[in-house]
Design goal:
This protein is an alpha+beta fold. The chain contains seven helices and five strands.
Length: about 180
Amino acid sequence: MVIKNPDAAEYIEPLKKLFPRGEYWDKLLSDEASDISLVCKVRAENLAEFKARMNQLQRETFLDFADETIDDWERIYFGYKNDDLELEKRRSLLRAQKFGGINISILKTIAETYGGSVSKWEIPYMPAAFAHARFGLTYMSSIAGMWVVFVHCSVPETNRTGFETAVRRVMLANQTIFFVYGD
């Protein structure tokens, strides 16, 4: 999506068309030094500034362009602000939170944000449910109610609390995660 910032000149003619028709008004509007023409120029500049500001705020609705509203994004998604992190790292955490759920790439992104890395993750338990469906077919699937993962990572000790908090914020309710440091 391309958002174009308007030029004040684009608004001058439409503003002049709002005035009544007639010889008197045409004469005033054709003279660039008349009061009416000067008022139109000032109003056109105001409209262009307003439109540019609206475009800027519209860009802020996309997380990748959020700069001025990044504090509000964090307030809504996290309930707190990460003022101590760089802007791009704050965006990375918000992307992970907005995506919902967790996978290895999200874990790696969060770890990199806090100056660490994830070497692997293990899912030690693979529970399954076996049942017989009403229409006579055998049914087998993994239980969605339990998900345990061990994350092997190295994160500086000063950043571990922030890292673990960020990861737990992205997890779903049925997910349990254990951190193994030093790998």
